[in-house]
Every structure is written in C-alpha cells, then in structure tokens.
Amino acid sequence: MLVQNFIWQRMEAIVRIVLQNLNSFSQEEFGIIWNLKDDIQRMKRTVSAIKAVCQDAGAKANNLQVSNWLEELKDVLYDADDLLEDISIKVLERKAMGGNSLLREVKIFFSHSNKIVYGFKLGHEMKEIRKRLEDIAKNKTTLQLTDCPRETPIGCTEQRQTYSFVRKDEVIGREEEKKLLTSYLLHPDASVADNVCVVPIVGIGGLGKTTLAQLVYNDNAVQRYFEEKLWVCVSDEFDIKKIAQKMIGDDKNSEIEQVQQDLRNKIQGRKYLLVLDDVWNEDRELWLKLKSLVMEGGKGSIIIVTTRSRTVAKIMATHPPIFLKGLDLERSLKLFSHVAFDGGKEPNDRELLAIGRDIVKKCAGVPLAIRTIGSLLYSRNLGRSDWLYFKEVEFSQIDLQKDKIFAILKLSYDHLPSFLKQCFAYCSLFPKGFEFDKKTLIQLWLAEGFIRPSNDNRCEEDVGHEYFMNLLLMSLFQEVTTDDYGDISTCKMHDLIHDLAQLVVGKEYAIFEGKKENLGNRTRYLSSRTSLHFAKTSSSYKLRTVIVLQQPLYGSKNLDPLHVHFPFLLSLKCLRVLTICGSDIIKIPKSIRELKHLRYLDLSRNHFLVNLPPDVTSLHNLQTLKLSRCLKLKELPSDINKSLRHLELNECEELTCMPCGLGQLTHLQTLTHFLLGHKNENGDISELSGLNSLKGKLVIKWLDSLRDNAEEVESAKVLLEKKHLQELELWWWHDENVEPPLQWEDPIAEGRILFQKSDEKILQCLQPHHSIKRLVINGYCGESLPDWVGNLSSLLSLEISNCSGLKSLPEGICKLKSLQQLCVYNCSLLERRYRRISGEDWPKIAHIPKVMVSAYTPSALKYIN
C-alpha cells in the first residue's frame, strides 16, 4: 500500500522539533521547575535513541505492532512539544510583567500562575511524558528496530528554477495536437447548425490537457481571430452563476437574473473563445442551462472543454473530442532530458542515458510523471551508480502498484527530507485548484514550527523561501505567477499532486464537513468549508490548526457568512494557527488570551469587527496578525506583541491611527499601512525608525497631520535604512477616491505657502533607501520634489497624484535608467509646464518606456478606461 510508510516519514519532523526545543532551553526555563534539567537531559537521550530507529520502523510499518508503536510515539511527541512550549511561554509571561516591583510579585503569587503551584503541575506533566517516552523506547528492542543513518537534507538549488513549472515555450511533444486544435478554432465546420462549437480535450490527470488549451489560447493567430477570449477554471463545482460571473468579470454578489443578462450582452453576436478548464459535471441538465446562455455568440465561436471524463465530453461536445494520449518514447526522452540534465542537454554517458531510458518507459508517457522524476533526479545531483540503484531498487517496486502514475509521483514525496514532507502535507488542507500565496504559505509553515533555524543568520522567512523553491523545483507546485519585480507571488498544485498530499497526511489532517465524527483525538490540523459550530466544547481535541475556508476566497460552496462557535475554538489550548476569514464576527472574546500557543491569527474580511480586545497582547507567541478588509475596525490594542513579524491592514477604512509601542517590534517584516493620527497617545512617525526589517510594501497615510510639526520627521530619518522595502506610498490625503481641494491651484490661497514649505520639509526627510522599486506620492503640496528622487537607482515606477502645486520634476530623473513607468495624475501645474516646454526638453524622460499624464485621478481612470 502507498500509505504504509507515511506515518514514520512525518514522525521525523516531529522528533526534530522536540529535540530542537529540548536543546534550546535557557537557564530561566530551567528555573520554572525543580530538577527540570535532569528531566530534560533524560528526555533528550530517549528521543535521540528513538529518532535513530524511526526509519527502520517506517520500513516495517506493515506490521500492525510497529504501526501502533509509531502512532503512540507520535501522540506523546506532540504532547511533549506542547508542554515544552508551555514552559517557554511561562518565561515570556514573567518577562512581560517586567521590573522587580512588589506589586508585580504579589500579582504573580496570588494569580493562577503561582510559581510553586504551577511549577509543581508542569513538573508532574514533564515526568509523566518522560516516563511515556521511556516506555516507548523500551519497546523498540521488543520490535527489533535497528538504528539507521540520519537523512541528508537537501540544500536550496538556485539554478534552473524556471524548469519546475511548464512555460509555454518549454512544452515538449504536443505540436501535432496543438496544430489540430488550432485548425478547429481557425477553420470551424460550416455545417454545424449552432453558432458556437464545443471541442473537448479528454485525458487522464497529468497528460497536459490544460497546457494544450493554454498553448492554443495564447497562440497569436488565435488571439487575433476572436473578438473575446475567456478562461474559466470550473473544477469540482459546476455552478452556472459562478461560471457566468467569471466570464463577465463580475465579483459582486449580483442576482442570477442580472448576471445572465450581462453575460448575454457581453457575447451576443461576438465571436468568442471560451475555455472551461477541468470540468467534472456529468449532469446534462446543468450543461443545458449554461448552454442556453452561451450559445448566442457570433458564428465561429468556440468553447474548449478540458476534462478527464468521457461522459462529460459526450454531454457537451458538438465536435469530436481530442483524446490526449501519453507521449511516445522519443518525445518522453526529450522532455526527460530537458528537466533532468543541465541545460536540457544529454550527457555523453551512454550507460546513464540507457538507465534514464528504462526509467522513462515506466512513466507511461505522462508528462507530469516524467517531469516529476526528471526534477527529482536533477535536484538530487545523482551519478550513474545512484541512477542504477534508483532504477533497480526504488523504481522496480512500481510494477507492484495498482496505480503506476500515482506511485511514480509518490517517489517525489519519498525523497523529500522530513521538514519538507510536513510543508508539502500541510497543503492538503486547501481545496483543489487553490491559489497559494507564497508569503502566506511560508508564514503558516513558520507558525507550525516546520521551518528549521538557519546556521547562516538568515531569518526564518528566507529559509521558508528556500523550502518553497525546493518544492517548486521538484514539480510539486505549478502555474507560478510573478509580481512586477519578477518574484514569485502565487502557485497552484496539480490535482494528482493534491491527491498525493491528501493521501500522506493520514488521521492528523481533516477536512470538516459538518459532522463531528470527522474529527478524532489524533487530528491536529483542521480546515472547514462550512460553519464551524459545536454544541459543546471538548478538551479531548488537540488541534494545532483551524482554517475556515470561506467563499469567495477559497472556493467554498457556502455563500453566506460563516458562523463561528468561539467556546469550541477557545477550548483548543494547543492552537497555533487560527484563520477565520469572511465570517460574521462582531467581537473577539477576551478569553482568546487562553490560546497561549497561537502564532498565526487571520481575521481578514470580517466586515463588522470593530476592535480587538487588549487580551490579544497577552499572546506572546503571536507572529502573524491579518486584519485586511475589516472595514469597521477602528483601533488596534496598545502594547502590541513584540513577537509580531507580520501585520496586514489593507483596506481597514475606519482605522484612524497606530498604537504606541509599534516601534519596539524590531522583528516586524510586514506592515502594510502606517496611519498617522492626531492624538498624543497614538504612535507617531518616529515609531517607524527602528523597523528596519520591513519588506515588501509600506503605505504611510495622513502625512498632512505632520504639517504643524514637520521637525518631528526631520529628526526621525525613518525610511533611509529600510533596504528591504520594495514599494513606498506617501499619502497626504485620506481617501484615494476623494480629490484634494481645487484651491491649491490658486497661488494666493490662504495657508498655501505654509503648507508648501511644510510638505517640502516632510518629503525631504522621508527619503527611502536607494533600492526602492516603486514610489507613489499623493496629495503633496510642494512646488518641487526633493533631489533624492533622482538618486533612486533601482526605481521602476514613479506615480505622482493630486499634487496640484507641483511645478517640476527633479533633474536627476534623467539618470534613472531603470525607470520603466512614470504616471502623473491630476497635477495641473506640472502638466501645463510639460505642454509649454520645447521638444528638446522631452528627451530627459524619453528613455522611460511608459509615460502617462492625465488630469484624472487613478480611481477615476479605472472608470474611464
């Protein structure tokens, strides 16, 4: 069975985490419990002895006794990890109380955290766990488990990363199919009665149905031939309204009557190409209902359907389907060489090529399997003898499997080191077709303790990026998208790879579908696509993750806000990750402070949430806090957690200020928005001074509040040392949809000169690091921009909006050879100047590929364009 070895493969990572925590104990932690040091040393020896036999136990996992032994070991290791973290949390709480005041000592003594009582309780639990571990260790002899060598971790391979996903110009072996399908599109059958022809592409998973559709969809001749091009990923749920909304680009919750009318208006009489990707629906009535909406296109319109089901093809087709087959041996070898050898060139080693040929034959011509195995062999940098062992020992077992392709894909998982196995398995919590955000995925891995500390002083997020790239290199991720700077932002997982992820997780992971029996006391990671509600709390659950997957973010069938039962959630004392997006939450209970282990809290899209309780600040382990699109959120608690690394506040429209103490978060890497308030008790601009680990994008709003005290900025030098920032937006105005007062164009307007000087001083002092790539200046009242704008050597985009008093651009802008885009919106004096200047002055910015000058604001342009 494919499942047999997965228990021990996950075990290695848990063992590593426990040993890591045991080794990191400080003197303060030893002081929590009497004789703790002796217990810790004994536990380290026991866990190390157990770790040595884990691999042998996995090889014997078919034996029921060994399998039960592994399950018991896993349970006690999780309990040990929770207890060790409890001790560390207790140290953090004592540090947070600070000082040596008599009052704080009295509070500690009379609280539930009394040192003697609590120390005795923890000590008792520690001894109990140590005894359980020792009993398990004794049984390894009875089960005849032997020591095995430690795994060799893979390193980050920087070369050929693009070969981990299929680029359009790298597809091998589908030239004939592309030519045939293109001919259907460009020369439709005139005898077909309907205006719209449906052409299915049929084949098993991994053959490249979607890739073929993409190749044709992006063909230049096809792009010119059709008036409208539309792409809809259908996947499991054939929802007519959703499909229609995707076709018209409607993300509003419109009624079906309006949606169908808009769709018919969009395509009526127009020759269009529509791709319905990954269709599973075998209900003919549903197709006929959609067909009635899409058959009003112009003559020659085409719908391409990709599906694994011949029944789907029969229901939908008006044209004979294209049945994809596996690649022939020649093309399979060509694809294999492309991913397995440097530069895609075959070596001169004939024996190595012969071994590769035998391996490729077992891939049955399936491109996904060929790529997966080729990537595996390339990433492991194996020689001839290693390839021979791989073929004769590991690959020889595949003939015994019922599902050859799945067994081939499993080899990629088998060859992952344990820490990557957990990262890969975690992806099973999300539905098929889910678009993973790379940064979010890394934050989740970090919160779960999956990311190992680096020996070269890199932060954990950078190590997480290495993990991500290794999984990508192994072809376990695909459909990668990049941002404006070429950095990977999102990816997806092929359906077959997702099936593999769900297979390997066993009972530790569960998808909740409204039935309590889906959860067991060994379930540690849970996701739900329905309202998460239990009548009673239960201390028997030891969940570490609860992720509520709400529509429309995660493709849930539930269109209504999700209802959350907090008594159940707050009974989960071991919780590390809590995600509740798009729910009906109005208030977070104060008892959230009981979730001491919580490291990741995502409350995004809770539109009615007004504030967070101060008790959130008692979560001393919290690393990530996401509050984007909490439209009613008014404030954040003061003394926010010093452990925080990521704080997301996008589209929090009623948030008015930042809390005091934000500047103490020296590990903060993500701060999407910094809002300047008018009250003395709020955080001021100087709070940014020490946040030099910030990355990505930072928006600073309400700079107009500094006009009365511009010297405050002058002394701060808040941005110059932030060398990891990529985007900076400086806003003097609150709302991008509200234009600034028109009277600023009047040179004698009252206060204009005073505001002009203040703004020039403020902007001069907000000089960013020269590595910044995008700069936005909005609502600025100065006549000129500071000279430092001309020294931003890495700047790709400069956007200036609503700066009605601005008369000129810095002369240094002509030196910015990297600048790709200059946008000037609603800056009337600047626009007039450039209309008046002679043509010989234009070459100063002629090197910029894209220059846009408009009297409209960016938000107005959205409607005009």
From TrEMBL:
Boundaries of every R13L1/DRL21-like LRR repeat region domain copy: 685-827
Occurrences of domain Disease resistance protein winged helix (ranges): 429-501
UniProt-listed GO biological process terms = defense response to other organism
Q: Which residues form the NB-ARC domain?
A: 194-342
The molecular function terms in GO held by this entry are:
ADP binding; ATP binding
Does the keyword Nucleotide-binding feature in the UniProt annotation? yes
Q: What UniProt keywords apply to this chain's record, in alphabetical order? A: ATP-binding, Leucine-rich repeat, Nucleotide-binding, Plant defense, Repeat
From which domain of life does this come?
Eukaryota
An example of a Pfam family matching this protein is LRR_R13L1-DRL21
Disease resistance N-terminal domain segment(s): 14-100
Gene3D superfamilies, per database record: 1.20.5.4130, Helical domain of apoptotic protease-activating factors (1.10.8.430), P-loop containing nucleotide triphosphate hydrolases (3.40.50.300), Ribonuclease Inhibitor (3.80.10.10), Winged helix-like DNA-binding domain superfamily/Winged helix DNA-binding domain (1.10.10.10)
Q: What is this protein called?
A: Uncharacterized protein
What is the organism lineage in this UniProt record?
Answer: Eukaryota, Viridiplantae, Streptophyta, Embryophyta, Tracheophyta
Q: Which gene encodes it?
A: LOC100781872
